[in-house]
Amino acid sequence: MQPHRTASPRAMPPSRPRLRLILLLLAALAGPPAFAQGDVSTMVIATASPAGVYHATGRTLCRLLEAPCEARTSDGSAANLEAVRAGEVTVALAQSDLQHYAVTGTRGFADAGPDPALRSVMSLHGEPFTLVVRRRSGIRAFDDLQGHAVNVGNPGSGQRGTMMTLLEAWGWTLDAFRPAYALPADQQSLELCHGKIDAMVYTVGHPNPSIEQAVRLCDARLVDVTGPAVDRLVAEAPFLTRATIPAGLYGDDQPAVETFGVRATLVASADTDPEAVYALVAAVFDDLEAFKSRHPAYSDLTPERMIGEGLSAPLHEGAKRYYRERGWLADAPMDDPANEAEEPDAADEPPAEPEEPPTVPDN
Ligand code: GLU
Description:
The protein is an alpha/beta fold. The protein contains 13 helices and ten strands.
């Protein structure tokens, strides 16, 4: 097993070589990396359905990490946030809207209450809320869904969480559909093909094979999700944005689709080993172009976006350490006072950076 990296040498501030040496020696003495929240040596990354981009992302992260690592399929964002809270996984993928609800204990997380230990690591690709319908259903807009058989996603999935927010803003409940199905992401295209459902929603990066399957093989098409309810949601919530699915991604006759969306984010618990999070962050950012080449959905990623967008929970200690070393971290919006209160061992911490906006590296 290779030891996990502790720093990008190019980016080490000159004042820290002694600390770095000590950390390296301690890591070497400690033996294999303890990556999970418990005393386990394998990094476990909670992803989602095998049909999505999360699982591909988890596998890519594991490959780049060069240490024992498992990309674990799951029910999706909401389930992942619960797993992080329960200490069952090392890190997890989660939509920016659900990350916000988990940290504040709102919406689907109202019963569980706020998760003060939730930490963000970085944000990743954009996930447009995608509505796919059978052409023959006659559905041309979100309003037309009323009375149709609609898959709103399995419990635990991100699309179900986003759909519930949208339904409330729209003034509807699940009773608007006849009926509402709770199929997982890897089954819904097939059921659209079979005519069991007229429409499905998926909050996912594009292009995506399961949507491609529905569109190309089953005479389905993508539909705009726009209107005053969406305008209101986007205006009120910083973790929701307008989104466009580019024309032609799913065939020459597919026009650009207007909708709204979230960012995929990577989260961990404050209890997750900072070295593990540091190693993961370094695996992505030491060669960001190599990471971005792994999926077309990553094409718009920049360090500035990845540490600045969609992160409601305070940054994890291990992530902050890396971002400071690269000179990217200022007292950004996510760096709130609660975060500072959580600062662990002062001895492990570099001096606080002066207050300035994050800068994009010149490489
Ligand atoms: N956004 C979806 C969810 O949170 C997962 C999308 C994907 O698998 O790429 O459940």
